[in-house]
Design a protein that fits this description.
alpha+beta; five-stranded antiparallel beta sheet
Length: 585
C-alpha cells in the first residue's frame, strides 16, 4: 500500500496508512499517552534539586507547558574541564493571542526578564515573548510570575495549537476588530482542557483543578496532535502574519468596508530536514469560504481532521502540510466537508494577497489615540551601548501606560498614546537612543532571524548574532546600486526548521553547518511564493558578494515597478545560479 493510500477503520473514517499500525508510532506518542494528560513526573523532577536536567519523557512534555530544555552552547568550551558538565537552562514562551499585552503585563514580563532570565526579552515571529536562560530552580517562580500577570505559557509549544496570530494594528477598522475577537475565540476553543488542570497542578502551587482520572480532552484526546499546529488571521492587502505559512489561515473578505467572511487556507508550513528530500516547505491551499460565525467551528474541524489522519509514525512528516500534499486538495476538501465541517462547501472568494504592512511609525487609532510601531532588530529587546531599548520601552510604557502589541515580524507597537504625549514619547526615544523606523534601512526593517546558537539545541549555525553583520554589508551594496529604498525581505535561520519563515522571503539564508549556509532566492515580501535553493554550503563571507551580482542584474533588467523577488522568479533558477556562480544541477 502506498503512503498516500487509505484504510478503513471501524468508525468509518479514513486513516492514513502511516497510522494504520500502532507498532509504527513514534516514541513521543507513547510519552503523551502515558503522561496523565501532560503531568508526567514534571512536578517531581522540578522539586528535586539533585536532578540537573529532565528525563527524555519530561523533556517532551514540558513543551506543552510552554518551555524547552536547552543548553548554553557558549559554555561548551569549558566542558572538558574537570567537574564541568552541560550548562542546562530553559526557554519559556508566552501564549499571547494576537500579540496583546496591557501596560502592566508588559512591565511584569520585563521584571521577569531581569529577575529570572538573561536580562532580555525576545520577540518572536508568532507575536509572543520568549525568556532565555531560565535556570531549573527558577522555573516555577518564573511561570507563577507570568500567570500572576494573567498571562499563560500553556500551549505556546508542543503538539497542540500554538499562539494564534492576527494583525496587531489597532486601527479603526471593523474587519481588524472582528479578526481580533475571532483570534481570541479560536485561541480559547483550541486550548487543551485537561492540560489546563495539569498546568495548574505542576506550576501553580500544586492547585488541582481536577483529578487525572476525571480529565478529558474532547478535542485532542490523550495523545493530542501528531505535531504542532499553527493558526493565523490576515487581510488580502495586509498579510503581516504570513498566512500561507500556517497550518490554518483565515483571510478576511470585506464588502463595502465590512467583514463578510473568510477564505479558509489549510496546509502551510516551513520546516524541512537536511538529507530528507520528502520534507519541504509548502504554502497553504484555499479550501473554501466560510461565514464569520463558522470560524471557530472550522478551526476545531481542522484540528480534529489532523488529529485523526496525521502521521504519528514519522515526526519529520507529521505536519498537516504533508497530509494536504499526500491527499491533494480535492480529497482533503472532500474529507473535511464530509466528516468534520458539516456545512455546504463554498469555493473561496477571489481575493489575492496584495501587500504586507510592517506597521512602523506613528499611526492613528481614532478617538485621539495613536500607536507607534518600532522596528526591533531580530526581536531582541536589550540594552546595548548607546541604544537602551529595553530600558526605554519600559520607561515609555510605565510613564504613558501604553498598551503593547507584538507583530509577527518581531517588532513592537506602543498603543493608546494621546496626541498630547507624542512629543514626549519622541523625546524619550532620543534619550534612550532608540531609532525611529524611518531612520533604518529597508533591508534591516524587512529582515528577521531566529535565536539559533547559543540557546537553541537544533541550531547548526549562528543566525541572530550573524544577520546584523550580513545586513550591514547588504546596506552598503544596495545603497551603491541605488536600491536602498526597495523592501527586500532577508530572513536567516540557524537550521532548516525555518522558524523565521526563510522559505517565503526574497532572500532566505538557512544554516547548513559551521559558518556555511544554503542560499534561497526568489520568494516574495508579501508571503505569496516560496523561494528556490540557488546554492548550498555557501560560506558566510561569500553570501553578500554573491547576492550583489543578483542585485546588480535586478537594477539593470527589472521591469517598471517590479519587486526583487518577482524579478528573480521571472528570470528563473538557471539564470540565478549563473549569477551567483554556482554549478548547474
Amino acid at each position: 500500500m502506498s503512503s498516500n493510500q487509505s484504510t478503513i477503520i471501524p468508525s468509518g473514517r479514513e486513516m492514513s496508512s502511516d497510522n494504520a499500525s500502532e507498532n509504527n508510532l513514534s516514541p513521543v506518542e507513547g510519552h503523551k499517552e502515558q503522561s496523565r494528560f501532560l503531568r508526567g513526573t514534571l512536578a517531581e523532577e522540578f522539586a528535586d534539586p539533585a536532578i540537573t536536567h529532565l528525563s527524555e519523557t519530561n523533556k517532551n512534555l514540558i513543551k506543552f507547558h510552554g518551555s524547552y530544555q536547552q543548553e548554553d552552547r557558549d559554555a561548551r568550551k569549558n566542558r572538558n574541564k574537570s567537574g564541568v558538565g552541560k550548562a542546562y537552562m530553559f526557554m519559556i514562551r508566552l501564549k499571547l493571542p494576537g500579540g496583546k499585552l496591557t501596560a502592566d503585563q508588559y512591565l511584569a514580563m520585563d521584571d521577569i526578564a531581569g529577575e529570572y532570565a538573561n536580562g532580555t526579552l525576545r520577540l518572536t515571529t508568532r507575536q509572543s515573548i520568549q525568556f532565555h536562560g531560565v535556570l531549573k530552580q527558577n522555573m516555577k517562580s518564573t511561570i507563577v510570575g507570568i500567570n500572576k500577570a494573567l498571562v499563560s505559557t500553556l500551549g505556546a509549544c508542543g503538539d497542540i495549537n500554538r499562539n494564534v496570530l492576527s494583525c496587531p494594528a489597532p486601527l479603526p477598522d471593523p474587519t481588524r476588530k472582528q479578526m481580533d475577537e475571532l483570534c481570541a475565540a479560536v485561541a480559547r476553543a483550541l486550548t487543551p482542557k485537561a492540560a489546563n488542570s495539569a498546568y495548574h497542578e505542576v506550576w501553580l502551587n500544586g492547585e488541582k483543578l481536577d483529578e487525572p482520572e476525571n480529565d478529558s480532552e474532547p478535542l485532542y484526546g490523550k495523545t493530542y496532535l501528531p505535531r504542532k499546529f499553527k493558526t493565523a488571521f490576515a487581510l488580502p492587502h495586509d498579510n503581516c502574519t504570513d498566512i500561507l505559512a500556517q497550518c490554518l489561515g483565515f483571510l478576511a473578505i470585506t464588502e463595502s468596508g465590512q467583514p463578510v467572511g473568510y477564505n479558509l487556507y489549510i496546509g502551510g508550513g516551513q520546516g524541512q530536514t537536511n538529507s530528507m528530500p520528502d520534507t519541504y516547505p509548502l504554502l497553504a491551499q484555499p479550501v473554501g469560504f466560510i461565514d464569520p460565525s463558522e470560524v471557530v467551528e472550522a478551526a476545531e474541524a481542522t484540528v480534529r481532521l489532523f488529529r485523526d489522519h496525521g502521521n504519528r509514525a514519522d515526526r519529520k512528516r507529521a505536519r498537516l502540510k504533508y497530509l494536504m500534499k499526500d491527499w491533494g486538495l480535492d480529497k482533503f476538501r472532500e474529507v473535511f466537508y464530509r466528516d468534520y465541517f458539516k456545512h455546504p462547501a463554498r469555493m473561496p472568494k477571489d481575493a489575492p494577497i496584495t501587500g504586507l504592512d510592517l506597521h512602523h511609525g506613528w499611526q492613528g487609532m481614532g478617538s485621539g489615540k495613536w500607536f507607534l510601531g518600532l522596528s526591533v532588530e531580530n526581536g531582541r529587546v536589550k540594552d546595548e551601548g548607546s541604544m537602551r531599548l529595553r530600558s526605554g520601552l519600559r520607561a515609555i510604557v510605565a510613564r504613558f501606560r501604553a498598551n503593547v502589541r507584538l507583530t509577527a515580524q518581531q517588532d513592537i507597537m506602543l498603543c493608546d498614546i494621546s496626541t498630547a504625549d507624542r512629543g514626549a514619547v519622541d523625546s524619550m526615544l532620543n534619550e534612550y537612543g532608540i531609532p525611529r523606523p524611518d531612520s533604518l534601512s529597508q533591508v534591516q526593517r524587512w529582515s528577521m532571524a531566529c535565536p539559533a546558537i547559543p540557546t537553541c539545541g537544533l541550531a547548526i549555525t549562528e543566525s541572530e548574532r550573524a544577520l546584523p553583520g550580513v545586513v550591514d554589508q547588504l546596506e552598503k551594496v544596495l545603497a551603491e546600486l541605488g536600491l536602498e529604498g526597495e523592501p527586500i525581505s532577508v530572513r536567516m535561520t540557524g537550521c532548516p526548521n525555518g522558524c523565521a519563515r526563510p522559505y517565503q522571503s526574497e532572500v532566505g539564508i538557512v544554516g547548513r553547518g559551521g559558518t556555511k549556509f544554503t542560499l534561497y532566492i526568489g520568494g516574495d515580501s508579501y508571503g505569496r511564493r516560496l523561494n528556490t535553493e540557488v546554492q548550498d554550503s555557501v560560506p558566510i563571507e561569500q553570501l553578500v558578494p554573491k547576492l550583489a551580482k543578483v542585485f546588480a542584474a535586478f537594477k539593470a533588467e527589472r521591469s517598471n515597478g517590479e519587486l526583487f523577488g518577482d524579478y528573480c522568479s521571472r528570470i528563473g533558477l538557471m539564470k540565478l545560479k549563473e549569477l551567483v556562480g554556482s554549478e548547474m544541477n
